[in-house]
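[09:14] KT: can someone run the structure on this one? pasting the chain below
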Amino acid sequence: MRIQATFLTLLAASLPLSAQAQDLSGMAGALKVHSTRERTFVGAISYTQPVGNYNALSLSYINEGHPDDHHRDGMAGQVWLRTKNVAQGLMLGAGVGRYFFFDTARTDEAPHNFDNDHGWASIVSLQARWQFDNRWYAQAQLNRIKPDGKDNTTHLLIGAGYRYDGVPGAKLHLQNWAYDDTLTLSTGHTIVNSLRSESSRPFTLEYRRAAGKYVDWTVSALDEGSTVLAHRRGAAAQLWLIRSLNEKVEFGMGAGPYVAWDGRDTQGHDTRLTGLLSAVARYHVNRHWLAQVAWNRVVTDYHRDADVLLVGVGRKF
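[09:31] RB: done, structure tokens below
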């Protein structure tokens, strides 16, 4: 599963390198599979941190659509060389990096005719951005993804983004970040990463504490709900990299181990050690209450990966 390597990628892409303007963007477009010439949709969400006037680091979630017999998505960390940052006008860039993917692939051997494959790929990108004078920008991007032993894909994406000027990125919403203890109760929607995408209702209880200006750690109790393929519950511990986008909103990425019991486990194991990769957006209503939206990917070694989408309310103390 290489969770440790994935987290290092997240770390490299999210370090608090400067107080320069970080930005968030969303894009969508068309994807081509080279081996079969199939075409499908593609979507991406990216966080970018400039490093000086000509370089940047980015972290992206990419969903590669639904070509025949494959549902592939993943996380990409990239280093960018760009033309000089401009307050308004055109900026061009080229990026290279690594892409950790999750592929739900049809097979005749698995008990339910699918596998959850995990692996690494190289990603190369070209980008054109037009910066408006109100922090918004329009963006077009071309990606080429080349996994080892898997289908190569090309993406053409168009979208928009927002630049957060002058925010240092530390936990600005707190007078004393060292005491950001939060208890959050969440529910939402669990989707098993199968070809039928079976779903259920999850519930989680999370305890979060700030460990630094840019780092949180959490302990969570999870019940992913019950489907025909999985009925999993357990406890997870995660380390998070957190960036403040303004005095109310935080964005973060986390990773860690998840010890779970699955009542539908096809191998008959009582407990399994899995991995949990997560992204969170937190809105601080006031000094005592916050709202939270989170995406979690459960990474397994027995073909029962799942997405757990959560909306919650937290109490700070």
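[09:33] KT: thanks! The chain has a mean pLDDT of 89.
[09:34] RB: yep, looked fine to me
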